[in-house]
Predict the structure.
Amino acid sequence: MEITQKNWLITGGCGFLGVNLVAHLLERNPHSAIRILDNLSVGSRADLAEVSPFREIPPGEVPGPPVGVELLVGDIRDQAACLRSCQGIDIVVHLAANTGVAPSVADPRQDMEANVIGTFNMLEAARQKGTQKFIFASSGAPLGEVEPPIHEEKAPRPVSPYGASKLAGEGYCSAYCRTFGLSTVALRFGNVYGPRSKHKSSVVAKFFKLAMAGEPLEIYGDGQQTRDFLYIDDLIQAILLAAAAAVGGEVFQIATFKETTVNEIAEKITKIVANHTGRTVPVKHSHPRLGDVRRNYSDISKSQRMLGYEPHFDLDRGLQNTFSYFRAKAQPLC
């Protein structure tokens, strides 16, 4: 059966990554069966409604296989909600998480409960309900401060609580594949950006929101820290390839194999805004953040070889598309 004809569960499906995945699945198959588990702490019903009509599962209903797009409001830290959500599901895409280094430093316990206990709950629910595939959204953060490019064979030494919690998730995915036979794949995403990212606080979305509001772009430290910036459509491609691939218990770097400084991102964004609006956007520097690694970009050779993954969007094209989204959202200001 073609993967878009499978029954999908997307945790965190009302968020940036989730609504884009829903939109892509429906574009490929308008009759896709998709259930979303989300506590609505970041994304909302309105965000999901922008890409699809949906039915909300009432409290207490024990769902069967999903029909169309369904929303189950619940938290991955709640074992019962996880079990309900996995009923009749073939593929779990586990996107729900406490995201980012700064929130994990501010509240490491909350980060652990969401990313470790929440991931364990979802894996156990998937095992009990007979799910075929489990795709885990990881990050480069488990590796910590290592000489880039980062790749799957480097020993992980996380710097931040966020990196430690994602490493624990990768470990549980490996264990559930090797002990229970659940086909798990951990995808270490680069810094994902693109349309529908209005709720994100990562650097590209943050800079566009500040620029459109006429506020200065704040760079932590000297701006020479580097990241691998991944356009949302390339990430969705990787998720779909991982869902279809006959691999389990593997970790893959999903990025572009290109290193870009935060200063370069700020320069590109200020130029795009100036070219389209005539507005000059100032840039300011503040103190470095605790837990941030200095350099980070990914060798994607393994994902190219084993998944057939290949990024298609360069940074200039992706940033232009992202600007168009934010400009439409802030039309009165432009």
About this structure: The radius of gyration is 19 Å. The chain has a mean pLDDT of 94. The longest strand covers residues 133-139.
